[in-house]
Amino acid sequence: MKKMKILLVLNPLSRGGKAKKRWEEIFTELRNAGIEWETLLWTSAEEVIRKVSLVRSRTAGAGETYGSESGFDAVVASGGDGTINTVVHGLMKNPDPALRLGIVYTGTSPDFCQFHGIPLQISEAVRVLAQNCVQPIDVMELERPDGPKEYFCCSCNPGMGAEVAETANRLRPWVGDLAGTLLALIRSLWRNRRFTFFLNGEKWADCNHLLVTKMPFIASGIRIDADLTPADGRFALCVLRGLSFLGWLQLIPRIYRGERVGEIRILTEPLTIESLQETPVEYDGDAHGFLPVKIALAPRKLDLIVRRS
């Protein structure tokens, strides 16, 4: 029986650079589990996407490839949600459906892992990899008028969310995950910018925040009251409108408790988001350009290695 073989994507920037200290532990656990690996070291998101899109599984035919000529069973992301998203993007651009996604988490805000039941301890995460049990999951597809398709697994935030993510990413290495996100959120709430969005042509004015998500877990303990599962073919739209700074402060405890806030719609059909303002877009923890965008469920599901039930 052949040993499992993976392409391990390592992001040295994860957790403010602290993830590198866990690499030797990862290698040791992979060795102990009898898993063979090749390493793809992060240089840029674009380069990781390009290389992962060229990887082939062991059952694939000949062609342009990256990495081992004998192929891999899975591509494993080791980093945070941004690293996972980048690997997912590469796999969704890869025409080989036999490749699987694996996770050994070393980031700061494990929303993806929490939603999909991926353990955060490295030894447990590698044990899950070794079991090689898969579950198809939904992936979100994002299109712009003048660009190629992009993909994300967690959430997309036009407007305020991009600012919160940028500030939180700078603060988390110094003050921790929860405090960094909370401080970034309060800073943006104090600015209290308002946006006018057009959602499938319908005007939504005086918006404080807009969220499109595949999961109820958003960032560092923030949750929304949306009944979503990994492969149910649905996603959620949440819009908050007309809030003052005081109104936001009163709302924050409810957000962290996962209570219903704002206007929530569960969707299955594509959603086009436009704005008259120059509005930045963030998804899965990093800024990615500006509106307009069209968001939909990707036609193809992705096989994720999960804990055996």
What does this structure look like?
This protein is an alpha+beta fold and 309 residues long. The chain folds into two domains: 127 residues, 3-Layer(aba) Sandwich (Rossmann fold); 146 residues, Tumour Suppressor Smad4. Helices cover 29% and strands 31% of the residues. It has eight helices and 19 strands. The strands form four sheets. Strands 6, 7, 8, 9, 10, 13, 14, 15, 16, 17 and 18 form an eleven-stranded antiparallel β-sheet that branches. The chain has a four-stranded parallel β-sheet with strand order 2-1-3-4, with helices on both faces. The chain has a two-stranded antiparallel ribbon with strand order 5-19. Strand 1, helix 1 and strand 2 form a beta-alpha-beta unit. Helix 2 crosses helix 3 and helix 6 runs antiparallel to helix 7. The chain is globular and about 60 Å long. 43% of the residues are buried. The model has no long low-confidence stretch (mean pLDDT 89).
